[in-house]
Write a structure and sequence with these properties.
about 190 residues, about 90% helix
Length: about 190
């Protein structure tokens, strides 16, 4: 009764659409039933396997005979390809590593040589008083020379030694750099 009251509320177009849907629904249901009947006719045999182990063994034997050799061959080919690629990568890595080590030695030797050269130039200028004038150490040298002139005995020797301390420091730096370069870089 509820569907009849709803039907009465529909206009003519909607009623026509509803009837078309119902008729098409019937056609679809009948076609579906026909397809199922045709499928049942085509399937004539029902298989009941009682001895699963025998069938399973036959299938596994067949797979081993037909598929296993192909898989093994493919595995061998791929393994050989991977080994070749790995060997090429390793050779390339070793070559790059050797080149980088050589370039590092050249670079470090160049930097150290430049620094040693700069220290030698500073040492020469220090001896000739050029750097000490720049650093203001020349006034200290004047004071030391005055003390040397005024002192007597062992104190004169001590003041004379202090006169060569900056030169000894620069010489020590150059010798230390040479030792470190030889020990760790070359």
């Amino acid at each position: 009764m509820n569907s009849e009251t709803k039907k009465d509320n529909l206009n003519k177009e909607d009623r026509k659409l509803l009837e078309d849907i119902k008729s098409n629904q019937q056609v679809l249901l009948s076609q579906n039933k026909k397809w199922l009947d045709d499928a049942n006719v085509k399937v004539k045999h029902q298989i009941n396997i009682e001895n699963n182990e025998y069938l399973s063994k036959q299938m596994s034997d067949k797979v081993v005979k037909e598929v296993a050799p192909e898989v093994a061959d493919t595995f061998k080919r791929e393994s050989a390809t991977i080994k070749e690629s790995t060997k090429k990568i390793e050779e390339t890595f070793n070559k790059v590593n050797t080149d980088i080590t050589r370039y590092k030695k050249i670079f470090v030797t160049g930097i150290v040589a430049f620094f040693v050269l700069a220290c030698l130039i500073l040492l020469v200028t220090a001896v000739t008083n050029g750097v000490f004038d720049f650093l203001g150490v020349s006034h200290l040298y004047e004071a030391i020379s005055t003390k040397i002139k005024a002192s007597h005995g062992f104190i004169t020797v001590l003041w004379f030694i202090t006169y060569f301390i900056p030169v000894a420091i620069w010489t020590g730096i150059v010798i230390l750099l040479g030792y470190l370069t030889r020990r760790y870089m070359l």
